[in-house]
Amino acid sequence: MIKKQIIKFIIVGMVNTVIYYMLFSSLIYFNFDYRLAVLFATLVGLLFSFKTFSKYVFENNNNKLLYRFASVYVLLYIVNIALIALLQPSVLNYYLSGLFATICCAILSFVLNKFYVFKK
Question: 9: which residues sit within 8 A by CB, 6+ positions away?
């Protein structure tokens, strides 16, 4: 069961991540502060990700879980910003530090969604 969920999470997460990263990169390109770029990309992706993860990955259509899901997104935002802030000076590139932070947050997202938001 968990193997099937991980595969679905990866597929759905890749779509969500591509959308998130395209928006983040576009905002960085237009000289937005990285914190605002992450915030805006996170907010845009929140509802889309909630619906796709709840329906296709965790097979739970309880909209009341949106509050838990949103709290996970707040935590992921903080972790994302912290990772970018730590990595950017050594990488000297917001695109690469943002990509690495996104991958780390995707892994954390699965764990939190599986065992906190959509736990059975």
Answer: 53, 57, 110, 113
Q: Is 8 left (phi over 0), alpha (psi -120 to 50) or beta?
A: alpha
Q: What are phi and psi of 49, to 5 degrees?
A: -65, -40
- Please count the structural domains in the chain: 1
Written as six digits, the tokens of 23 are 């928006």
pLDDT tens-digit profile, the chain (120 residues): 788 988 999 999 889 888 888 999 999 999 999 999 989 998 888 888 999 999 999 999 899 999 999 999 899 989 999 999 999 888 778 889 988 998 899 899 999 999 999 987
Domain extent at residue 54: 2-117
